[in-house]
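for the writeup, i need someone to sanity check this before i put it in the appendix. the sequnce is what the collaborator sent (i think, or maybe the updated version? ugh). structure was predicted straight from it, no edits. if anything looks off just tell me and ill rerun, i have time this weekend
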Amino acid sequence: MKKIITLLVVLLFIFSANAANPQSKETAKPIDLTKETFIEKVFDYETNPEEWKYIGDKPAIVDFHADWCGPCRITSPILAELAAEYGGELYIYKINVDEQPELAHIFGARSIPMFLFIPMGETPQMGVGALPKESFREVIDTFLLKKDLAN
């Protein structure tokens, strides 16, 4: 009888913890890109190499990174948190420069991490180096999402 009561208490505890902390089954995450998916989702530089034309339906951040890069390993969890936080408002893409050397070359990714910040209908901007989470938030809110931060 004690085992049944203990089991019920444990199940009740688990249920109440999940009810108090509901999480979406589909949490947004950074999206890894290859050359093909970059052309499909971000910019078709083969068809139109002279003029930037973002294909996406939400602003985006493209992270040029490598597995061996220390600063990249610092920013990776920050970007994962931001992808979950801003999931419905923007895309966070990742390009491994070792696996996608053509994309790294086209965008001049010589120093990593390098970020391409892509607002809707405007010219994208580049950023280089590990940024703290608050700096990413500021760029996202002011440059990408155009939020009025005065309110």
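Residues 3-25 have pLDDT under 50 and may be disordered. Residues 117 and 147 are 15 Å apart (CA to CA).
thx in advance!!
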